[in-house]
Specification:
1 helix, about 5% helix, globular
């Protein structure tokens, strides 16, 4: 993905991001991502984000079992994040940084990364549904997150025009464009993060051997 940010100068391409999904024959998955600014922009936007989700698909539900996140903005140190969450579905329990414990009530608990996998599957299984609701864990606890279908939207990816589904989540301050051409995974990720407004636009998509 190309990483861009809005500023007084307009929309600036400042870095790159990558996502990698590995699934084995037992429906266990590891989904990881990294994003960082190019060195030329570090004086203005010194930002990096690394996250990983490990989980399992059980009874057609995506379940996250482990999630870790390191998000660093050297210009806003107070807003940096570095934590992990372990989820035990059989015990209805989530543990944050080996300290805080939260009770889980849903059969499927997600994190901000595995959420993309669940949404991808659900829009394919329920194409006429307008709102999708999930239980998502982060550093604040387990929260309900909704994604609303806002309509179809034509977009351009690598100079090719494609149709996409625009989904928005007010809780996450996030909008996604999903396309059947790319397994309904996000081709555009539009996120408001504190004072910054980040855009991720797909540049390359390939299946690993």
């Amino acid at each position: 993905y190309d990483l861009s940010v809005t500023s007084d100068l307009g929309k600036l391409k400042i870095g790159k991001a990558s996502y990698k999904l590995v699934v084995d024959n037992n429906d266990e998955f590891t989904f990881s991502s990294s994003a960082f600014t190019d060195s030329i922009w570090k004086t203005l936007y010194d930002y990096s984000r690394y996250e990983r989700s490990i989980g399992l698909k059980i009874d057609n539900y995506i379940n996250s079992h482990y999630y870790d996140l390191a998000e660093i903005n050297r210009r806003e140190l107070a807003n940096n994040k570095n934590y992990n969450v372990r989820i035990y579905p059989e015990k209805n329990l989530a543990i944050f940084n080996n300290e805080k414990r939260w009770e889980t009530m849903s059969k499927s608990i997600l994190d901000e990364l595995s959420l993309y996998l669940a949404l991808s599957e659900d829009v394919q299984k329920n194409p006429d549904q307008d709102v999708f609701t999930y239980q998502v864990v982060d550093e604040k606890g387990i929260n309900q997150v909704n994604f609303k279908f806002e309509g179809n939207e034509p977009i351009t990816i690598n100079n090719i025009k494609i149709e996409s589904m625009k989904m928005t989540s007010p809780e996450l301050k996030l909008s996604l464009n999903l396309s059947s051409s790319f397994n309904f995974l996000p081709v555009i990720i539009n996120r408001v993060n504190k004072e910054n407004h980040f855009y991720l636009t797909l540049r390359e998509f390939k299946e690993l051997p």
